[in-house]
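[job 4417] fold queue: 2 targets
>>> target A
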Amino acid sequence: MTETADAASTPDAQMKAVPDELASFEAPPIEQQSSFNARNNATIANAVMGVLAKRGRPAVEAVGNVSHKLIPGPEGRAGLLVREKS
């Protein structure tokens, strides 16, 4: 591996917080669960939200307003949809 790849594959404390949080949910291994239970277990997203909550940071960004605009394409082709938040 390259030095960059080695550094990326070694989790630092900030990176390790998410899998540690997921492990703290103590869910049984997925192969030992019914499909219903497995689908309703905590996910990485739940772990990220848990880490953010412990750090006092919001899990979602508050947005006052979102506007949608369509920028027309050349010669009547489909355009580009742009979302702006304010």
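>>> target B
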Amino acid sequence: MKIKSVRIGFQHNTNGGTMEVIVIESKAFEELLNQLVEKLQPTEKELNKWIDGKEAMEILHITAKSTLQKMRDNGEIEFSKINDRTILYNRFSIEEFIESKKSKTF
């Protein structure tokens, strides 16, 4: 990928300055653009809004199902009860819960 940097002068509000202009070949630009688009694609993790209890426990770094139950009962994380045996958890509410518990450093 060939990228060339060129400096040019400009005048702005009576203050002189320089501006950097980057020249890039069209093939290199397309490659760079494709890499950017790929990075912006949602990952499988981002697409899966609803996760099972096992994955919820992994994200929360907990081992006891009773802790997950308490979090449900206390309204700390969102869940959806599909039937008597299936409960799904909202990944984003779990991430928000974790963020709400962070401490600021001094």
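[job 4417] complete. Note on B: The chain is about 45% helix and 25% strand.
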